[in-house]
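Hi all, posting the design record for the shared folder.

TITLE: backbone redesign
STEP: 1 of 1
STRUCTURE INPUT:
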């Protein structure tokens, strides 16, 4: 279970994120917080952003990545805590990929190939392949949306 984030850290992170967003609003990049939240496509939308900015909730790692991408800055610019956490997660993922030799890019190709094969087999075979593809996708998330091969 994740360690609880103290209020001082949440305040500091919220203030840093607030300053970055305000600078982009001032530059005309975003109209307001809601516009930033919408463009970032972070989970929880403007509600989660509001909670983070008011230090009601810590910045979630998946949201932090999207906030950083939308702001054009590293996560460490507003949350060294999450940047370190993401670094650990990415390091664990690299270790898993090194051990298996399998990457998310492989996953996309494999799912596309399985879809082509699935079109020519029985329903039982199809269900089996779908199950395996879902298992692979959960273990190795796809980058972006997979396109079904036709």
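Okay, here is what came back for every position:
SEQUENCE:
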């Amino acid at each position: 279970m994740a360690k609880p984030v103290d209020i001082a850290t949440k305040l500091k992170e919220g203030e840093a994120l607030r300053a970055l967003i305000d600078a982009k609003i001032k530059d005309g990049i975003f109209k307001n917080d809601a516009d930033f939240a919408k463009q970032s496509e972070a989970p929880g939308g403007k509600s989660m952003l509001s909670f983070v900015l008011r230090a009601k909730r810590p910045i979630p790692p998946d949201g932090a990545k999207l906030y950083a991408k939308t702001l054009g800055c590293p996560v460490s610019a507003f949350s060294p805590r999450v940047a370190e956490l993401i670094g650990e997660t990415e390091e664990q993922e690299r270790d898993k990929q090194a051990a298996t030799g399998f990457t998310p890019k492989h996953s996309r190709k494999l799912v596309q190939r399985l879809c082509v094969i699935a079109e020519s087999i029985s329903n039982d075979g199809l269900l089996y392949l779908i199950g395996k593809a879902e298992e692979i996708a959960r273990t190795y998330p796809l980058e972006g949306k997979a396109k079904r091969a036709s």
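COMMENT: The radius of gyration is 20 Å.
Let me know if anyone wants the other runs.
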